[in-house]
## 1
Amino acid sequence: MAKGVARSTAEPMGWSKWLLRGHSALVYAFFYAPIAVLTFYSFNESQIVGRWTGFSMRWYGDFLENDNVQQSIWVSVKVCIASTLISVVLGTLAALSIERFRWWGQKAFDAVLYLPIIIPDVTMAVMLMVFFSETAEWFNVIPGVDLSEGLEKLVLSHVAFNISFVSVVVRARLTNLDATMEEAAADLYANRWQTFRRVTLPQIMPGVLGGALLAVTLSLDDVVVSSFVSAVGATPVSVYVFGMLRKGVSPLINAVSVVILAASMALVIASLVLERVTNSPKGPEEE
């Protein structure tokens, strides 16, 4: 048995080792070569995509001077911040209610909570568009809410699918949380709010921050749902870039895409770092 285990965990030898390395290189090239080409041609001097005439930063200059692009970025930032804050609060509360309490209809709520992760984006986009068209008059009764402008619809739509992802990350943290710490706080006469604020929240904070970064990334990258519910004057940058493609591929699109890609990669890397910190074993000083 020991020999079998050692043999299964041993490093591949000879030609199989190089075959696995070559296969891995081809997979990485297949996925990331288009990104490298996109980034390379964003510095192209020529207006013709795919024809290299020299290095230039002109398209990034046009990106900074384009008012429509700047406006769409500002819309994305506002929607991203608002939807992330709401999603983090609601997603964390949903995770706590499922993991820490037992109540009637909990299983049904748990199943519905994961629907945005399972169903296709187009299906959810159509449902949200129909929902807002049928209930616009109800929302307009609320002071300060005007769904005709589109910004509120974008925020609510992004909250609808971000809650699920935030809840998943926070629940993963709660599952590995030692419940005896909360019991000890109760033994020391702390009420539920004090226990949550001083014991539970600090321990799940890496998961909350990881869920928040994931929500930010999903909100910035979303195209399908945003294109169905956005309105004139409230177009996020992802939808604006998709609309630019209908007029033909321009080097300006390459520059805008690289900026969005860099922002998304930074958020994903930050989320992975937080996840690693969350799952890292405790050191002797923490024990």
## 2
Amino acid sequence: MPQSLESANALLPRMIEAVQLLVRTESPTHDLAACANIAEVAAALTGEWLLSPARIEVHDGCPVLRWGPEQPRVLLLGHLDTVWPAGTLSRLPAQLSDGQLTGPGVFDMKAGIVQALAAVALLISQGVDVSAVGLLLTTDEETGSRASRGVIAAAITEAKAVLVFEPSAGGALKTERKGTSWYRIKFHGRAAHAGLDPERGINATVEAAAFVMATATWGDQGAGTTVTPTLLHAGTTSNTVPVLAELTLDVRAWTATEQQRIDAKVRTWRANHPEARIEIDGGIDRPPLESSASLELFAIAQQVAQALGLPELQSCAVGGASDGNLTAAAGVATLDGLGAVGDGAHADHEWALASAMAERAALTAGIIKATLNGEVND
């Protein structure tokens, strides 16, 4: 067994303990007090693992944990928040059973955070200079990273590589992600009595329905573009012509060109009734993470895995977006899915494979070392 993998395996009990600590520290995105608490817990862990203190910043009310230089050459990127409401631990406790770690947020992505810490700790133990490596953990990723986008953008101005510790997909690294667009559309009509004089009204539900039917033709199965109406609210009472309808539209696309095509369709839509009014909020949210952004780093990861004697690494493309979409769109080489091996993100059966954590830590350490040694082109 290669020495680095042996060293990572020696860290596994400590890694498991750290994961369970993070899982037991609940951190729903919208609970700022809980997010502040887990930032403190994670900062303490970071200091213990990496032998120097982390720092906590607050951006637009959301805590952000940072370690290392402000503009590192290699940025390790993740998030501490989860989709799980406070109290979930009472029915989904943090446990280790049959080699599987369970509990809210263990797969997405608290195990991945510990793997990142262990990877840097391995390099420190080997005498590798990690002064150009930075760690950034946010607390609002699950709701779109509104508060942390600026700090992410500032952190990658000198970066040669961003390694994202979102969970893997069946062990495969994520080398492509769809871009996401979100729209909240209000259709304004005019109220009237539905029995006495409906003709005097402007039916906002009818306007929304026409828009929804049109969106069914906007997607492109061949290009992988999906346009999905999701939430719809309309009307006030059962006998009133609806004055307002509110619709949420979810758009996913593999290319920026497709995102822009759908954006144009949304913004040029015209109401059927000449006096109806349409109000559009939102738009293109995260650009796609295209394969060109991860190609070089994935090749390095494959070489490292082979040197470690690990099974051949696989890559995949996924429909969900992450903060890796933002860094890739900024032109920085980005490799995603370096986090936990397991399953069940956002689901009750969420789990992470404990034994794989050591392998992923050793793999990550090798990728960081190769990047610091100049094996990633500028």
## 3
Amino acid sequence: MQIRLWGVRGSLPTPLDSISIERKVRTALSLAKPGDIISEESIDSFLKSLPFSLINTYGGNTTSLEVRTRANDLIIIDCGSGVKGLGKELMKTEFGRGKGIGTIFFTHTHWDHIHGLPFFLPFFIEGNRFNIFSSVPDLKHRLEHQQQYSHFPIALDYMRAKKEFFQIAFDEEFYLNDIKVYSKSMPHPGGAYGMRIEENGKVFVYTSDCEFNINVFDEIDTYREFFINADVVIFDTQYTFQESIEKFDYGHSSASIAIDIAARFNVKRLILFHHEPDYSDEKLDTVLANARTYLYMNSKVAGRLEVDIAYEGMVIDL
């Protein structure tokens, strides 16, 4: 399967402002030597030498992922503001002609996981069909409430694609065509669910919005079936370890806890995710560097666990 990240930020969208863009340009220019700008080739080489945060952005859109199965079936996980960009791309395909079929999973209904849905263009096209799954018992009501006239001018029913809702039990496996899905309840205020997706011997785990702290870690083996031997885990690491202590019961984890869990359950690759809205791109560079330092301090794990950080447009092939 293939996973593409369309939104990686937590809590609320955080677009780059003009001050941040100017700072990136100014810093990059200060690092350039005369020989770095004498040709297209030298410019390309110079740009490749810069830190990710100077030449790119991790992105400001909230949570949304696209999963493609081996049969190219479409699965969308969560509909934060990132789903708007995904919708625009889908409109170039059969979804733009009213012939698209897709599946959507909602892990929970906090704003940053649903507020992109009213701007998801394929929902407006009659003929498109979406099967919508969640362990949230009244998902349809919650989404309709978001688009009541007092909150938004267009009702969910006005979006003419066919939408069918299915409640799935948590802590239980089910099959969707050729893939196996396991929904697991996560520690998060108001409730949230993680997703484990297995296809053709590959395992992808997604757990945005989860608070694994010292207290929860005492019972971590209850999550063994969820995490064990995953090829890739996308994990909520919104806070530093110190912030996770100061913001106890806010519902988010740290990279160090995520690494400990990934190591315990033989995860191959860990993706840090659901970034704090106040974190700049430069700060996120530091978050990744600190996480890798923590990883390498544990010599038993360093050789078998890879740690990366999520950015918009990131593609993961399994």
